[in-house]
Amino acid sequence: MSFSLRPAGPQDIDFLTDMLVEASDWQGVKSGGLPQQDRRVTVLADPKVAGYIDGWLRDGDAGVVAVDSEHRPIGASWTRLFTKDAPAFGFVSPEVPELAIGIVKSWRGKGIGRRLLREVVTMTGLAGYDRLSLSVDVDNPAKQLYASEGFEVIETRPTAVTMLKTL
Ligand SMILES: CC(C)(COP(=O)(O)OP(=O)(O)OC[C@H]1O[C@@H](n2cnc3c(N)ncnc32)[C@H](O)[C@@H]1OP(=O)(O)O)[C@@H](O)C(=O)NCCC(=O)NCCS
Where in this chain does the record put each N-acetyltransferase domain (predicted)? Predict the structure, then answer.
């Protein structure tokens, strides 16, 4: 099992969309059992979810793709800036990018998510931002990953929290 990281480019939109579906429907309750194309349509029907990937790669977007030894994508994490008028779920301010992350199911639990997260945190700091936010469901075990990498809960909603890391 070996993997490496590379920057995400415009050609990665389909893979990132698949990872967004994994992140948004991590329990499979919205779209589990459907063919992937139908999963996408179902999950992206929520404009607030689609907002994480619409028009990728636009100004302010940045991301990293994990690939296996044959260069096949197996995970991705990316950030995007949002506005007060069109916020995503973990919106803090127009100057604070928000992170999304997903790993292909068969590759989870092998340290790829933590590597991607650290890489995106580093990239975001190098790009000059001083904070990075995200939204995670309260019962998603990913919350532990974020907490262990220095993200703190700054807002609690009925089913999700917003977490923020100072860079
Ligand atoms: C969450 C996710 C990105 C983590 O990536 P990963 O490669 O599986 O995680 P790693 O192997 O790097 O593990 C890092 C930590 O994640 C946490 N974690 C993530 N998923 C977990 C699970 N299902 N059960 C237990 N711990 C989990 C653990 O704290 C783990 O820490 P450890 O290494 O000390 O055990 C990945 O599991 C995933 O894509 N999940 C579905 C999509 C999703 O939920 N995205 C996040 C939405 S906010």
Answer: 3-167
